[in-house]
Specification:
heterotrimer, A mainly alpha, B alpha/beta, C mainly alpha, A: mainly alpha, MetI-like fold, globular, B: alpha/beta, D-Maltodextrin-Binding Protein, domain 2, 2 domains, five-stranded mixed β-sheet, 18 helices, 14 strands
Chain lengths: 318, 422, 278
């Protein structure tokens, strides 16, 4: 009772202080005490309802399926934590979790390093830099499924990659069928397609770095690397934050490439959380176990995103 | 889309009936044929679709009903489309199902959930093969009507085999010898699409029918009761152990773990391999496509030929939607496909056999090498029809792929299967 | 002043080499789509000798996996519906939340943002069940609506950042003049938001156009596939894979988005990097 009163009072006072600004502006029109009202809550209602249903309610309902043995066609029975326990005891799932993190980390490194490298290379000076940027960004807008099929052809045992290797005197490899190399093919395809996205975001960030700053540092004797580390990098912090978080989330959720190229094989070597969840939920129609996996995975994603944002948070105190 | 077309057809029929009855004096009005919607997987056999052929024949044979066929993708994605339709309560009048349990398109779980209608008022209960009734009936009620009967055993390029002076091995040891001889010749005895768990699984079934289920037909029931397990069963270990022996003897093409479906025809047509693991009726297809002789041979699993069995059963059947709009039309279609006339049309394209077991080796010459097994009743239906969880079959198939890569042992594969058994 | 030295020339050449390397897969794609099935396997790298456009015709006429033109139409409908919902409702919501300064609107805004970080893609099963119970499953319009709902947080986020950077003078003047709030928004604010509208349309549009996972679940094998589903059904078909035909299909599937990209490439790139500003 007491605390709510205080809260209400605090709220109204803070509102009042915030409303102090418009009131000042309305000083232009001394006969109006009322301030401008922007829109109406009704306008926001459809979106809010949509978000509430799709992102909150549906997740809640789905979460509850995780505690049942729903199989899509007959009634669901409560099974408690069985599905969650199964996650830990199922070698296929544990393997997929490992693959997912491995892919995400390498993909993350690839997209960011290559993206940043391309951005630095195409930032200034090159005559064809605008044309090259357009070219490098093209793969991003293509369908990842289509891109994956192109690479499936390339990595095929009788495909061009092996033909080139044989022409160079090397042994042809079973890229898609070898448990060691298969996972790298997935990563290569994903990085190939998305490096351009990293490049574009880093370019936008680099555009905010005034060249005079770097030049004066160069005059002062700072080396290329020092200039980059101490001047450029801190100034593109927002770009770093966005690209790293985006690439981490994308890497964790890789699905299309696996489906098109390896189907999760060989022997589960390229199964990711997304493909396993899809297979269990929609190919086996085991909704209970599938939603349990999806719930755990969603928590992992949220955690990873929060962690990444925290690490790349703006610390310059600007 | 279907619903709209159906409503349109019904509306048209209704108005035309009204118009005609109001105008006619005594002469009966001819109603327009009513539509029956039918879903089937996409099957191309010799460039023709057996389902489309039998549908066309049915439509031509009468004018009360018109069956409209929709091909919903290959066998592996058909089930998912069906499942989505079940969820959306948008099933057609008639659709193709598989006998037994364990797949999305398996009929028994659908029967349990009340999604399919009883077929006891059609010819189906009488025409379904006896051995398969356990997988299509619940108690006294029949829920699925078989189109035909399939034999599933290795399909062999006999022309290529004879050209190299090879005789089909009748014992397991003899087969290993032939495998090694093929390798010495720069070829491979089998082509296995190791990246597809379905192909590995089909091969496993062709082997298990002799090495396990022929000796113990009730094994699945024991597994359900929990008195046996995959990992501790001597015959399971023996069968997968034989797979390992085959791998070691070079029976499969190098890089088999990445073998694909297109590779099957790419290798068996020119005779780079002799045998592949595809449904028996495909032999007819291959004959038509290449002009070479393709036959179906039994998969040898022991050195005692009396233990030889063969996979013989229903692969696809039709069920009626419990909420079907056109029940009479659906029943008429079912009666047609279970009749001799309907089946003749179907098997002429699919290369399968009649459900009543009549076997004419002259009509289906590719089955000659297995004819004696069929007539001496050594045929058994697919063992996986009794596996409830599709994950088990998937683990079997991917486990064999693991064995091909050298990553998995027999015990690991079997334990993997046990861990998902429900 | 920036000098173009020989180091710069070297850098340019190096980048070009990298670029050509990166674009090699696209060369393979186009090159092999014009070959017959045998040459595409035996000599994938060589430049095609006698270009054969027949593959494109074959693929267009094929009904094996659903027709590509139908897939394009469906993809177009879905994307149009989805983008409309995102633009109309996202802008209005962002306007309300960004202009108002109460705690409630702040909290609501953050609650919506959570939806971006844990995107609905992962809650796909409950959404699937929800769509099933509401009857939106298997329908193209339904999928468009679902996309609009799923991507709404992204749209609100992008619009809100832009709205905040707009000064309130125009709206106040309109308010004084007695304009209704909706008219103010429609005639004054929304046109000013057009850069954000472009970003939302492009980002959301690309996601919806190329998406494979969601249509796979919602439209799986129904009478109305999207482009992604047609490509998948064709290329994943176990028996038929002939690379030259698959590539012809892929090129046809990629043409719409590529043409749009080449025309609007500046806007595309701006759209993706627009997120930086907020």
């Amino acid at each position: 009772m007491n605390s709510t009163e205080t809260k209400a009072r605090r709220k109204s006072s803070s509102d009042a202080s915030l409303q102090g600004e418009p009131r000042r502006k309305s000083g232009l029109l001394p006969f109006r005490k009322k301030t401008v009202v922007f829109g109406s809550w009704i306008w926001a209602f459809p979106s809010l309802a949509a978000v509430a249903v799709i992102h909150y309610y549906a997740t809640y309902v789905g979460g509850s399926y995780a505690f049942t043995d729903f199989n899509g066609i007959s009634d669901a029975n409560w099974v408690g934590l069985d599905n969650f326990i199964r996650i830990g005891t199922d070698p296929q799932t544990m393997g997929a979790i490992g693959n997912t993190f491995f892919i995400a980390v390498i993909y993350f490194i690839g997209v960011n390093i290559i993206g940043l490298g391309l951005a630095l290379a195409l930032n200034r000076g090159l005559k064809t830099r605008y044309f090259l940027r357009v070219l490098m960004f093209l793969p991003v807008v293509l369908s990842s499924l289509a891109v994956s099929y192109i690479f499936k052809f390339i990595f095929d045992f009788e495909g061009p990659l092996n033909k080139v290797l044989m022409a160079l005197g090397q042994e042809p490899k079973l890229w898609l069928g070898d448990t060691d190399t298969a996972i790298w093919t997935i990563i290569i395809v994903a990085v190939w397609q998305n490096a351009g996205l990293g490049m574009v975001i880093y370019l936008a960030g680099l555009a905010t770095v005034p060249p005079e700053l770097e030049e004066s540092a160069a005059i002062d004797g700072a080396g290329v690397f020092q200039r980059f580390w101490h001047i450029t990098l801190p100034m593109i912090q927002p770009a770093v934050a966005i690209t790293t978080t985006l690439s981490l989330l994308t890497g964790l959720r890789i699905f299309d490439q696996v489906v098109a190229m390896t189907g999760g094989g060989p022997f589960g070597a390229t199964d990711t959380m997304s493909t396993v969840i899809y297979r269990i939920t929609f190919e086996y129609s085991d909704f209970g176990y599938g939603t349990a996996l999806a719930t755990v995975f969603a928590i992992v994603l949220a955690f990873a995103a929060a962690l990444q944002l925290f690490i790349t948070k703006d610390r310059s105190g600007k | 889309m279907n619903k709209f077309q159906r409503r349109k057809a019904t509306a048209l029929m209704a108005t035309s009936l009204l118009a005609l009855t109001s105008l006619s004096f005594g002469s009966p009005a001819q109603a327009a044929p009513t539509e029956v919607s039918f879903w089937a997987p996409t099957v191309l056999s010799g460039g023709k679709d057996p389902y489309a052929t039998v549908v066309a024949a049915f439509n031509a044979s009468q004018n009360k009903y018109v069956v409209k066929l929709e091909s919903k993708g290959g066998a592996q994605i058909y089930g998912q489309g069906l499942n989505t339709a079940i969820q959306a309560k948008a099933l057609p009048d008639v659709f193709v199902v598989e006998p037994g349990v364990g797949q999305l398109q398996s009929v028994l779980p659908l029967a349990d959930a009340g999604i399919v209608r009883s077929l006891n008022d059609t010819n189906a209960p009488k025409s379904n093969p006896v051995n398969d009734r356990q997988f299509m009936n619940k108690g006294p009620t029949t829920y699925a009507a078989a189109f035909a009967v399939e034999i599933n055993a290795p399909v062999v390029n006999t022309t290529a085999m004879k050209r190299d002076g090879v005789v089909w091995p009748r014992t397991f040891d003899r087969m290993l010898t032939e495998c090694r001889a093929a390798v010495a010749r720069g070829k491979s005895f089998f082509y296995l699409a190791g990246s597809q768990f379905g192909n590995n699984g089909l091969m496993a079934q062709m082997m298990l029918v002799s090495s396990l289920y022929g000796k113990d037909p009730n094994w699945n029931r024991k597994r359900v009761a929990g008195t046996v397990k995959f990992a501790t069963d001597a015959r399971w270990k023996d069968t997968l152990g034989k797979v390992k022996e085959m791998i070691d003897a070079g029976c499969f093409q190098s890089g088999a773990q990445a073998g694909s479906f297109p590779g099957i025809t790419q290798n068996v047509f020119p005779g780079r391999v002799y045998a592949v693991f595809v449904p028996g009726g495909t032999a007819r297809d291959y004959r038509t496509q290449t002009g070479q002789q393709f036959d179906v041979y039994p998969m040898p699993m022991s050195n005692n030929t009396s233990e030889q069995r063969i996979l013989y059963g229903v692969s696809y059947a039709a069920s009626i939607n419990a909420a079907a709009k056109n029940v009479e039309g659906a029943k008429a279609f079912i009666n047609y496909i279970t009749s001799r006339v309907g089946q003749t049309t179907f098997v002429a394209v699919s290369g399968s056999l009649f459900t009543d077991g009549t076997f004419n080796a002259n009509r289906t010459p590719w089955f000659r090498p297995v004819a004696s097994l069929v007539t001496t009743k050594k045929g058994l239906p697919s063992p996986t029809r009794g596996w409830v969880d599709p994950a088990v079959y998937n683990r079997l198939g991917t486990g064999i792929q693991g064995m091909l890569t050298g990553q998995a042992t027999v015990d690991q594969v079997l334990q993997n299967m046990d861990s998902v058994w429900k | 002043m920036f000098r173009y030295t020989k180091w710069t020339l070297l850098r340019e050449v190096l980048v070009w080499i990298v670029a050509l390397f990166m674009l090699l897969p696209l060369y393979l794609l186009i090159n092999n789509s014009l070959k017959d099935s045998i040459t595409s396997i035996t000599d994938p790298l060589g430049l095609v000798v006698t270009p054969d456009f027949g593959n494109f015709v074959t693929v267009l006429e094929s009904t094996y996996a659903g027709s590509l033109p139908l897939g394009m139409l469906n993809s177009f409908i879905i994307t149009a519906v989805g983008v409309s919902i995102l633009v109309v409702f996202g802008s209005m919501t962002a306007y309300v939340l960004a202009r108002r300064t109460s705690k409630v609107s702040k909290v609501t805004f953050y609650l919506i943002l959570v939806g971006i970080i844990v995107p609905a893609q992962l809650g796909i099963v409950p959404i699937y069940v929800f769509a099933r119970s509401v009857g939106l499953l298997g329908s193209v319009w339904g999928l468009g609506i679902i996309y609009g709902m799923m991507l709404m947080p992204l749209s609100v986020f992008l619009y809100a950042g832009f709205v905040r950077s707009l000064p309130t003078d125009y709206e106040e003047a309109a308010f004084i003049d007695g304009s209704s709030r909706f008219n103010t928004f429609r005639k004054i604010v929304f046109p000013l938001l057009s850069p954000a509208t472009g970003t939302v349309a492009i980002l959301g549009g690309i996601i919806m156009w190329n998406d494979f996972f969601t249509p796979l679940i919602f439209l799986n094998n129904s009478v109305s596939p999207t482009i992604a589903l047609v490509v998948y059904s064709y290329a994943a078909n176990p028996v038929l894979i002939e690379w030259n035909l698959v590539f012809a299909l892929l090129i046809l599937a990629m043409i719409p988005i590529t043409i749009l990209y080449l025309i609007f490439q500046k806007r595309f790139i701006q759209g993706f990097s627009g997120g930086i500003k907020s």
